[in-house]
Amino acid sequence: FAVVKVPLEVMPPLVVNAIRFILSAAVLGALHVRASRAEGVSPLAPFRAGWKTVLAIGLVGHGLYQVAFIFGIERTTAGGAALLVASS
Questions:
Q1: What number of other Cβ atoms are within 10 A of residue 42's Cβ?
Q2: CB 7 within 8 A of CB 70
Q3: 14 within 8 A of 70, measured Cβ to Cβ
Q4: Is the Cβ–Cβ distance between 8 and 77 less than 8 Å?
Q5: pTM for the full model?
Q6: Measured between alpha carbons, how far is 8 from 3 in angstroms, rounded to an integer?
């Protein structure tokens, strides 16, 4: 939480969130491709079966949560945000 507070001092919340999304998508995507190749399956195999569900959960569940998260972090202290998330 403290790491997120630093860029919020100089950038708007949605820009910080976009940077977080891009970095995490790149790292997790690379790990997924690596694990898929190790198992000998296509990296796209999980998405072919349930792409509508993956898209819906990604957009609504994760996307909405992250927008609310970043605006909440902007409006409180890092410790307060950590306590709120931990208690939920």
A1: 12
A2: no
A3: yes
A4: no
A5: 0.63
A6: 9
Distance CA 45, CA 27 (A): 19
Asked if residues 73 and 4 have their Cβ atoms less than 8 Å apart, the reply is yes
Phi-psi region of 40 (alpha: psi -120 to 50; beta: other; left: phi over 0): left
Q: Which residue type, as a one-letter code, is found at position 79? A: G
Residue written as token pair 């569940």 = 61
User: pLDDT tens digits, the chain, 88 residues: what are they?
Assistant: 778 888 888 999 889 888 988 998 899 999 999 999 999 999 888 778 788 888 888 888 778 888 888 888 888 888 888 888 888 7
